[in-house]
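W.,

You were right to be curious about this one. When I first looked at the sequence I had no strong expectations either way, so I just let the prediction run and decided to look at it fresh. Below is the sequence, 265 residues in total, followed by the output.
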Amino acid sequence: MRLVVFCEAQADFQIAADLIDRVLREAGEPWVADVMDAAPDEIRSWHGDGEGHELFDLHRLDHHVDRLRVRVPHGHFGGQRGAAGALMARTAFSIVRALVKRGATIDAVVVVWDMGDQPAIRRAGLMQARTEAQGWAGFRIVLGCPNAMREAWVLCGFDPDGPHEGTRLHVLREELGFHPNVDAHRLDAKDEQAKRSAKRVLRQLTDDDRAREQRCWRDTPLEALRARGEATGLRDYLLEVEQHLLPLVVSGASGSPDDPRGINR
């Protein structure tokens, strides 16, 4: 299964990719986990941007359009004006279509974009573009919509590890008036120094330790991430991965003459 990921930063790619691996491993058949442990690229691999990056940067779509000479359609979406993000997503899907025409094998596209202070509008825009693309695309489309930002997804997986972290969580709980790991969607301030900044809260809880952040989404049970992540968009993302990507792995289980183990990509 060959995947293309569009997001805003390497950190976004890492959490999106790790969660895909977890869902495939934990929700798939036992053989999927076995292969993931031994050779994960035989289950899924990433089609990079051709310039040394595993992801396509949403901030550089115009660059890729020019480089690949992509023609992006303009106009309405199903007779309606595009909401925020609709043209951006249409551009991403057009880039993938161009890659496929050049001979690339791409089974699915993943778009992860922070919702900021426009969660309803931005998600609607992505949905408009996906609905349009489904009329012609030969690939699946997965949407990741962190509300309000990626750090909220990380906070959903934070559980205190020892008394020091327990104290930090308690102090922030008293300061904010709510549990930042349970109601992370309420941390919607744009100013990184503001009291309700998800970035600030995450830095304080993890002591700005990147490895500690990673444990939040790599080690916390998926059931806990789903439960806490309803309002942050994390539960929806995990469900999209299970609904759209897992069937691609399962559909290859019958194998082919050139692929006796049943993993076609």
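Here's what jumped out at me. The CA atoms of residues 71 and 117 lie 31 Å apart. And, maybe more interesting for your project: Residues 10-27 form the longest helix (18 residues).

Coffee later to discuss?

I.
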